[in-house]
C-alpha cells in the first residue's frame, strides 16, 4: 500500500515538474521577474491554471506565435497596462522604455510594482527621470530639458528644445557640453586680444 501511494506521488510530481520548470524560465523573460516570480503571472494559490490579468496577456501574446514563443513578447507588452491601474507594465516592472531583453537587467530594480494587481503601483514609475518630465532618461530625447511631448520636428532623435539650446548637439538625450577644443580656442583668442590691448 505504501509503495503504491509513493508511486502515485512520484508520478504526479514528475507530471507537474516540467510545467514548474517552464514557468520558472519565464522569469528571465520579464524585467525584475525574480521579484514576484511565478506570481507575476499566476494567482498566489499555487495553481498554474489561474492567471492574473498580466499573466493572461502574457499567455495571449505568447500564443500569437506558432509554436508558442516568448521571443519579442516583452517588446509587445511593455506599453500596455494589464491591470488598468494607470501605469504601464514597463513602468511597474522597472523598464518604462521597453529596452529590456531576456536575461538582461532592468533599467530600474527598485520601486517595482505588480503589473497584474491594480492595488500595486510604483511611487515613481518613470525613474530615473532627471528633468522630471515623466519621460524616463533612457528614452527621453532631451534628458536635461522638460519636454513631455517629445517634440522632434526634424525627426533626428534629438528633441527640439535640446537642439534650440545646443545647435550642434549630437547627443541622444543629454545636453552636450562645449567641446574642450572650442574652450581652448576661446582662451587663445582672448589672450591675443588682451596682449594687443596692452601694446
Ligand atoms: Ca499597470
Ligand atoms: Ca499594478
Ligand atoms: Ca525625462
Ligand atoms: Ca526631457
Proportion in helices: 25-40%
Arithmetic mean pLDDT = 80
What profile does the largest beta sheet have?
Answer: none
Radius of gyration: 26 Å
Strand content: under 5%
**Bound small-molecule species:** calcium ion
Shape, per Cα inertia axes: elongated
Order of helices and strands: HHHHHHH
| Number of distinct beta strands | 0
Class based on secondary structure composition and strand pairing? mainly alpha
Uncertain regions: pLDDT < 50 for 5+ in a row?
1-19, 176-189
Distance between the termini: 113 Å
Keywords:
single chain, 199 residues, mainly alpha, 7 helices, 0% strand, elongated, disordered N terminus, binds calcium ion
Question: How would you characterize this protein structure?
Answer:
- The chain has helices spanning 2-26, 33-36, 53-62, 73-77, 89-92, 160-165, 180-198.
- It is an all-alpha fold and 199 residues long.
- Residues 83, 85, 92, 113-115, 117-118, 120-121 line the site of one calcium ion.
What's the SSE blueprint?
Layout: H1 2-26, H2 33-36, H3 53-62, H4 73-77, H5 89-92, H6 160-165, H7 180-198
Bound molecules: calcium ion (CA) (4 copies).
The site of one calcium ion (CA) has 9 residues, from loops.
Concise description?
This protein is mostly helical. Helix content is 37%, strand content 0%.
